[in-house]
Structure formats: C-alpha cells, structure tokens
Design brief:
- By secondary structure, the chain is an alpha/beta fold.
- Helix content is 30%, strand content 25%.
- The longest helix is centred in the last third of the chain and has 16 residues, at 173-188.
- It is globular, with a radius of gyration of 18 Å.
- It binds adenosine-5'-triphosphate (ATP) and magnesium ion.
- Magnesium ion binds at residues 52-53, 165.
- Residues 52-53, 165 line the site of magnesium ion.
- One of its GO terms (molecular function) is ATP hydrolysis activity.
- This is Nitrate/sulfonate/bicarbonate ABC transporter ATP-binding protein.
- Belongs to the ABC transporter superfamily.
C-alpha cells in the first residue's frame, strides 16, 4: 500500500491496551491495512466493540499500535500530528468560556497569534452555522449547536484530514439530518478547509450518502473485512 500524500495504515495491530477484569489477552485490532488519499471521503462501519474508535485513536497518535505502521503524509505517527483533527460523538467544552473562546483555545495551544485566532475562529463559527452564538455559553446550546462547536473546533485548525467518530449519533434524527446536510453541502461546494475525511458511523445510509468508499470492520479482532467503492 502507498499513500504519500495521505494516510497509510499498514498491518496495524493493537493488543491489550485496555485493562480487562478477567486478564484475557485482548486483541483489539489485528492486521488493519488501509490508505486514504487526498480528496477522499472514507466511511468505517462495524459492530460495537470492533475497534473503530481505537483505530481513530491510533491515527491521531493517542494510542500506539503494538505492531504494523501508521504514516501520515509519509511520516510515522508518533503523537498528535499537524493536519489531523477529530470530531467525537461527545466531548467536553469549557463551561466558563463562550463558544468563540472554546473554539479559540485550540489555536492558542498551537501558537497562533491572538488577532489571527479571533479571525479564524469567527470564520469557522460562521461556516458551520453558529453565527449569532459567538457569545453564548455551552449550557445555553442545544445538542445540535453544541455538536457544531465540536466541528468548529476541529475545522478551525484547517486539518487536511478530518476524523469523525459517530459525530451525529448523539443527536435526534432531525438535528442529525440538518447538520449532515449542511456538511455535505459545504463539502460539495469545496468550502470546508479540509482535504479528506475518515468517518466512523453506524448508519449505512449516511455512509452511502457521504462517502466515496466504505470499509467494513470485522469484530474480535477488528480488521478490514470488506471494502465498497461508491464513487
Ligand atoms: P462502538 O461502535 O461501540 O463505538 P468501537 O468499534 O469504536 O465500538 P472500540 O471502542 O475501539 O470499538 O473498542 C474495541 C475493543 O476495546 C472492544 O473489545 C472494547 O470492549 C474494548 N474497549 C474499548 N474501550 C475500553 C475501555 N475503556 N476499557 C476496556 N475495554 C475497552
Ligand atoms: Mg466507537
């Protein structure tokens, strides 16, 4: 496999990263190979517990694989990498900070100057449909708006690859649908500041709608069992 411009996961495995009460030899991922080229939207489906979130954590550099290699733009992933960001199903916001400040903090962490931070954060907030909510506090937000803050925080760094772990599944059907439609529109119009997407979902219809390719994970241990090309 090769993906100089994008993501390469080659025979990655993960053994026993989580503590199990019974001390069983847990193989979470075994021999996972995949690559994502720039421009692709790839979906990842599989049963609960098959290791999808673990794979995203590996790609983000939050978990170290026990075998195989993971490369991002030709370099091994050893920790959080520039150009990657992630949207989670649920996440924490600083309750004492406004929406704008919650988006800005990520840029502060990577050393973007203050004036630039404000401009880029407002841009991300506008893009994701949060305009008018800049000064709101997290507790004042609906579930859908809260999730949009998660997207704004991920998008504000202009990642080349956006990882999404069931970003709509905590939302009610209608709210999920609205947010999904907005994102698809932005993607099609080329307005998202990203090049590629890897998205974990339990919703096959959503995957068919959004993705160029869908990978299906097997369970226990997780590995790519099938691939469906759509585009
Ligand atoms: P889901 O669809 O439910 O989100 P998943 O495909 O994302 O599932 P992972 O969360 O990656 O699966 O879990 C893979 C394996 O690791 C499973 O066997 C799971 O039980 C185990 N696991 C995950 N998180 C923990 C944890 N915090 N403690 C113990 N075991 C865990
Ligand atoms: Mg998961």
């Amino acid at each position: 496999p090769q993906a100089e411009q994008g993501l390469l996961v080659d025979a990655a495995g993960v053994r026993q990263i989580y503590q199990k009460g019974d001390n069983a030899d847990l193989v979470v991922l075994d021999d996972v190979s995949l690559s994502i080229r720039e421009g692709e939207v790839v979906g990842l489906l599989g049963r609960s517990g098959s290791g999808k979130s673990t794979l995203l954590r590996i790609i983000c550099g939050l978990v170290k694989p026990t075998s195989g290699r993971v490369e991002w733009r030709g370099k091994p992933v050893t920790g959080p990498s520039e150009g990657l960001s992630m949207v989670f199903q649920s996440f924490a916001l600083f309750p004492w900070l406004t929406v704008l400040e919650n988006v800005e903090v990520g840029l502060e962490a990577i050393g973007v100057p203050a004036a630039e931070r404000r401009r880029r954060s407002l841009e991300a907030i506008d893009l994701i449909g949060l305009d008018g909510f800049e000064s709101a506090y997290p507790k004042e937000l609906s579930g859908g708006m809260r999730q949009r803050v998660g997207f704004a925080r991920a998008l504000v760094v202009h990642p080349r690859l956006l990882l999404m772990d069931e970003p709509f599944s905590a939302l009610d059907v209608l709210t999920a649908e609205t947010l999904r439609t907005d994102l698809i529109e932005l993607w099609i119009e080329g307005r998202l500041p990203i090049k590629s997407i890897l998205m974990v979902t339990h919703n096959i219809e959503e995957a068919v709608l959004m993705c160029d390719r869908i990978l299906i994970f097997s369970s226990n241990p997780g590995r790519v069992a099938a691939e469906i090309k759509i585009n």
